Each structure stands twice: as structure tokens, then as C-alpha cells.
Amino acid sequence: MSDSKITPAAAPSGEADVLHIARLARLAIDPAHSRQVAAQFARILEEFKTLTTLDVEGVEPMTRPTDSTDVLRDDRERPSLTVEDALANAPARVENFFSVPKTIGGEA
Amino acid sequence: MSRALPIQDACAQAAAFRRGESSAEQNVRDAFDRIDALDGSLNAFAVLERERALALAAAIDRDRANGIAAGALAGVPVALKANMCWEGVEAHCGSRILAGYRPPYTATFVRRLLDAGAIPLGMTNMDEFAMGSSGENSAFGIARNPWDKSRTPGGSSSGSAAAVASGMVALALGSDTGGSVRQPAAFCGIAGFKPTYGRVSRYGLIAFGSSLDQVSPFARSVRDIELAMHVISGVDSFDSTTAQLPPLEADPSDADLKGLRIGLPREYFPNGLSDSVRAVLEAAKQKLAALGAELVEVSLPHTPYAIPTYYVVATAEASSNLARYDGIRYGKRVEGDGTLQGMFAATRAAGFGAEVQRRILLGTYVLSSGYYDAWYNRALRVRRLLRQDFDLAFEKVDLIVGPTTPTPAFRIGEKTSDPVAMYLSDVMTAPTSLAGLPGISIPCGFVEESGASLPLGMQIIGPALGDTRVLRAARVFEAATDHHARRPDLKPLEHARA
Question: Does residue B63 sit within a domain?
Fold first, then answer.
């Protein structure tokens, strides 16, 4: 699936692309700002293009600097947060629950 | 102000406390006096916890009176960065979205500091979510460099660096993701140490880039860094990436550097360095040689790729980590158009500052369908090449030394309009972070710029888990030089802030 020969030729070229990314990132963005972001992206990605000049064929991706995997602690019962503590920072609550806007019938 | 400056280092403060020559309460009161006198113009602290600190100090004094053995940092006031969890104390991460957030638990490293008798005074200012190299991305005002208040103290751990450099506290914690402790340490003329990834638990450090973040101490002496590391390091069952090792022990041998081979990467001494910076580095090299180290030129050929690699990896991880700020469980909420999706988008747009939004968008883009392989996966492969550069170099040398930054502290506002220029200030620290290696910045000289005397930092980098070796070499260099002993000329405010 991974193909190191793919080159990022198609950088987000304008407002429409930025609006799409903003939607994926769940960030509201107004059109004037999206134009500014598109210009900044172009500048940043121009610098980053240097990555495409390297041959990385056969190089294993390095996701993190340690080799440890599946490190688990003992499965022991221990005290956890109380409901009050867990809800203490919530901007809106109803009884012992986090409160959110209605989700049924709106956009998924 | 009679007790204000200069302050003793943390080792000396702890020793004086153990000998009964000082009280924790007086140490804390003195530190708050210094903060009141100096912080109105430096803005190092974002949150002060006077009552809590005085209560802790009283308990420590009581324990000593009752014959209970004092911990390694007993009676020593310290500062925490505002992205660190201390139960009930505001940890806003420099962001509007977390204003007023009080974590319901305490980080492992904070717990270890408290168990050792250290007394946190509060939380320091920082670039929002640790994204920045100057402190200018804080939603709570800009911290200033004690050597020249028109300049940045560096970032993202701007407040912790300014607090230590100005003598408010001897010891502070920061977090280093791509240089966020080493770069401000260099700009402020103090020591800042990023341990090997996994040496200090990240449990309770509010995440930015999880494969990069490390809790990292600032101090005015290397022995203080060693003491802090001994207290906060070691395996933690709440962070599965911690190395399965006991707390770090210092190597007490401090005579010289004989037998050590030190690599000087040619990529860290580029032609663009100014003559004055070059002269300071040359003197530092001669000092290392005079101490007995054998200096060897090495190459880290993928260094020019480190900044793009870092900003792809770090923004990808940030976009994922910051997805949790959705206005539901904690933090700010803006209702938006009344739908759930609308609430998410409006909350995040109102809560995050410009740089954080830019990085979330960049990270979302490099992880998005169609671009993942071209950017993120490719950056991870280049990350491997960067690590291999170091592995090859460490077959020939014991340590690597270079400047921490190519310039001294830059002016506030100088780089804010150009994100790429700001990103490039991490060019000598980001490679170590990507590779997960330990690195310390220590003062190695001063340059004069526009009438200001500005410190420069030297970075000593070690192989993975070579933390003790890095710290020993730094301590030997420090003992043979006096750069660390110089202090900024600070005029206390006439009217201490309320």
C-alpha cells in the first residue's frame, strides 16, 4: 500500500482544498482566512518538498524512537476518578452526564 | 529584595535545608518576593499558587521538625510549565481553549517532585500547546528574555526558562518536543536537558507530539539537572513508553574529558553562522580539547531534511492529539449552529490560536487520504535515516557537540510573520528529538548585539540512554568555564505587581 515513489505534487492549491481539510479537522474557517492559510500552506509545503528528493525505497518508517511494544501493567483494581471529578471541567452537564447538542436528525 | 539575587542552585538550597540553615517557608516567601519584583516585566509565570505552596512548605518544615528524613529536593521552590498536570491547579497550556482547566490528577513527574520535597510555585507561560519557538504564541501574554526584554526567551518553554534565568527559581520543568527546552535554555544562558525519549514518564504531560515529547529540566547548574533527573526519571506503569530502567544516577567523575571522542558535525557549523557566533564556538571547542577530549569531524548528512520531517511528524501527531478538544469534557465550548459538528468546529476555531490551527490543518492534511504516503509515511522513513546518521556517527564518537541554535535570542516580533523562518530556528535541536536522543544545552559564551550581551548555548548530544555521559561532560565543561555564572542585570520593578 505504501509507495515511496508517490510525490506530493498535489499540494492544497487553494481555498477549496483548505476548506476540505478544515472540515476534516473540525475547524470552522471563514473564506478570507482560508485564502491566507492556502498561501501559508504553499510556502510551507514548498520548503517541505525537499523530502521528495530523497530515495527512501526500502527504508522502514520510524513511528517512534523506542522498540518496546505491548508493555502492560498488572491488571489490578484501583481507585479511579469519581463522577464528580470527571465532570468537574465539563462546560455543560446534565445530572451525571456530559451534555452535547442533539445528534439525531442533524448532520452525522 | 535583599534576599532576591543571586540565588543558590537547587543542590545548595536542599543542602542548606537539610542542615537546618533555612526553612521551606522562608525559601518559598523569598521566591515569591523575587517573582513579585521581576515578573511584571518578564511574564514568566502564568499561574501562581501562593497558598498551596506555603501550605506545602509548612508541611515540609513540620516533617523536618518531627525528625522525618528530608527528600532530595526538600524545601526547594520549583516551577512547572502550564502543560503539566498538578491536581486542581490550572493547566491552560497557553491556550484559550483550556483556560480554567484544572486537571483531576497529578502527573507522575510532578508526584515525584512533591515526594522529594520540592515545592511548585505555579505554572509558567508557554507557546500554546508547546507549538512555537519564541513564547509569542501564548494566549496569556509574551514572556520576555531577562538578558534583553525586547527579545524572546525562546520557546515553547518560554516562562520556565525566563523564571530560571532571572533567578526567580533555581529549577523549573519544561517539555521538549523539537527543542522547546534546549533552545530557550540557549537563549537565556542556562542549562536545559532533554533526556532520551522514554527516560521520564509523560503521564500527566498534556500531549503535543507523543513520539517526541519529553519532560525536561532547566537549571543554572548541571548538577541541579542531574538531581532533578534523578528525582523525575524512571519506569512508570502509567506510560508504556518509559524505559524499563531505574532513576538516573549521576557519574561523579569530574576531573576532565580524557578518553572521550567528541564528534563535531559539519552540518552544525554552516557557513551562515556569524563571525561572533563562530568565535564563541571556536573557543568552546578549544576548551573541550584542553579538557582532554579528542575532537573529530563527523557528518550527519540528512540534517537538511530534519525540519520538514519534524514539522510533518509533529503536526500529524498534534492534529490527532488535539482532536480531544471538542467542547464536551473540558475546556471552552462555543455552541455554533446548534449541531454537534457545528459546536466542534466553532469551539475549536474560537479556542485555538493561529499557529495551533495552522499545525492542526497541516497535520490533518499530511494524514489525509491521498497524501498520507506522500507526506507522513515518507517523513517517517526520513526520520529513520536521521536516526541512522546518529547511529553511524556514534560508532566513531562518544558524544556530539554543536551550537544549540545558529543565533542568539531574536527580537520579539522578528519572526512572527513568517512561520517557516520560525520553524528553522529548531534546525539543530529537531534532529535529536526525531531520533529520541538525549541532548543538553549549556552556556558556552556571549555575543554582543545592538548593545546587549546575549548568551549562546552549546548542545551536547549522546546516544540513546547515554544521558549520564552527556550530563557528566556538560558538568566538566561547566566547571572549567564561567559562562553559567553570569547573570542578567535585572532592575526590579518599583511597584511589585499585586
Answer: yes
* Best mutation target, A33, A45, A48, A55, to test chain B (most B CBs within 10 A): A48
pLDDT tens sequence across B229-249: 999 999 999 999 999 999 999
Chain B residue numbers with beta carbons less than 8 Å from the beta carbon of A59 are: 381-382, 384-385
Q: For chain B, how many structural domains are there in total?
A: 1
Cα separation, B5 vs B24, in Å, equals 18
Residue spans per domain, chain A: 1-58
> 3-state DSSP call for residue B192?
strand
CA-based nearest distance B272→chain A, Å? 18
Contact state of A2 with B377 under an 8 Å Cβ cutoff: yes
Q: Between A and B, how many residue pairs show a Cβ–Cβ distance under 8 A?
A: 193
Q: How far apart are the first and last CA of chain A?
A: 29
Q: Which residues contact B447 (CB under 8 A, 6 or more apart)?
A: B274, B276, B277, B280, B408, B453, B454, B456
DSSP-derived 3-state class of residue B71: coil
| Residue with more model confidence, B270 or B286 | B286
Question: What pairing do the DSSP bridges indicate for beta strands B171-176 and B77-81?
Answer: parallel
CATH number at residue B184: 3.90.1300.10
> Does B319 qualify as catalytic in the annotation?
no
CB under 8 Å to B74, separation ≥6 — which residues? B14, B17, B18, B24, B60, B64, B116, B117, B118
In a domain, B234, yes or no: yes
Confidence category of residue B123, pLDDT binned at 50, 70, 90: very high
**A54 contacts in B (CB within 8 Å)?**
302, 305, 382, 385
**Full residue range of the structural domain in which residue B242 is found:** 10-255
Quick check: is B216 catalytic? no
Query: Which chain A residue is nearest to residue B340, measuring alpha carbons?
Result: A101
Catalytic residue, candidates B81, B194, B287, B415: B81
Whether this prediction's pTM lies above 0.80 is answered by: yes
B201 is known as an active-site residue: no
Cβ atoms of residues B123 and B46 within 8 Å: yes
Cell of residue B308, nine digits: 520538514
Residue B483, pLDDT > 50, answer yes
Cβ contacts (< 8 Å) between A15 and chain B: which residues? none
**Beta pairing class for A93-94 and A97-98:** antiparallel
Among B378, B424, B461, the residue to mutate for chain A (most A Cβ within 10 A): B378
**ipTM for the complex?**
0.90
Q: Of B189, B382, B394, which Cα lies nearest the Cα of B304?
A: B382
- Read off φ and ψ for residue B468, nearest 5 degrees: -65, -40
Domain annotation covers residue B411: no
The residue with cell 566547571 is: B479
**Does B232 reside within a domain?**
yes
